[in-house]
Amino acid sequence: MSFKRLLRGILRLLRDFLILMIIGDTIGYFLFRGEDYTFRIFMLQSAYSIGIGYAFLAGARIIVVYLDRRTPWLRYPVKRLILQVSYLILLCFLVIGAFTLFIFLTSEASVQEVRSQSILGITISLTGIILGTIIANSVLFFNNWKKSAVQQEKLKSEHLALQYETLKSQVNPHFLFNSLNSLASLIEKDRENAISFVKKLSDVYRYVLDQRDHELVLLQDELEFVEAYIFLQKIRFGEKLQFSASVGLPGNPKVVPLSLQMLVENAIKHNEISSEQPLKISITSSDDQCVVVRNNIRKKFASEKSTGVGIDNIRKRYEYFTNKAVYVHEDAEYFTVKLPVILDQ
Predict the structure, then answer these.
(1) Distance between CA atoms of 84 and 66, rounded to whole angstroms?
(2) Tens of pLDDT along 281-295?
(3) What element of type H or E holds 13?
(4) pTM of the shown model
């Protein structure tokens, strides 16, 4: 440890001691009458304030670090407030009880004197701790509220950008050109199937427009949208594109809108699709409340240029709703993505 770091540590320690002494002795001055507030009481009160207050501060730092990892303010504000206040109250009683026991075991004064001084000193210190806790948590809450507001605005900007990119990807000339070519071919060969194609194409565009203002959608709605999208693609690719969906999750789980479709679209965009090498895409569920999208890998030598709508955007949006990460794995055979579902709280 360098001398400068050691000096800074000592100065911080002295600063904390001085603050605790000021808090404790200021409260003590108003509780005692002027003629009774002797130098001996001043020294005892300073010792009480430093001993109890510093032990409390050290324990409070450990609690805050632990809760920052397990229950962050931005994701669980109410739960965090309840847990932090409960832990700090428990810490108060533990510190005060230990310090009182220490005084009784080590003091040479009579039991009555020790009890009287301890109760008075502890009362003053506890008052200071409560006031300090209220002030500190008020400042902390305000700072986290500001961070939350900034993050909300950032999420909104990213959400709007993602909507724009998604709409561009869905109405890009390639997608529309391929769809119209498929439709023209169907009209000549199979008028009934052509009508179904138009309806599915309408469903795809309607879903994109309907969900542009939603942060989450029902998993079932997203799956129906993906099936409509696959229907359009299978008109073009036939049995060269094989798709299956088998998802069984309880309740009404939700996902980020268009997230499953983006993964399916990327699989079609970046892989060869042929009779000899059909592209197989599956959507299943896992025991850890995730939707699993998997496709076999048959990479194109020159795939289409990315539009910017990808896994990174999906990750950023999921980070806001859950602490479960989006899992991505690629090996020689398969490309797999696991998306955590969001359950109603």
Answers:
(1) 10
(2) 999 999 888 999 999
(3) helix 3-31
(4) 0.53
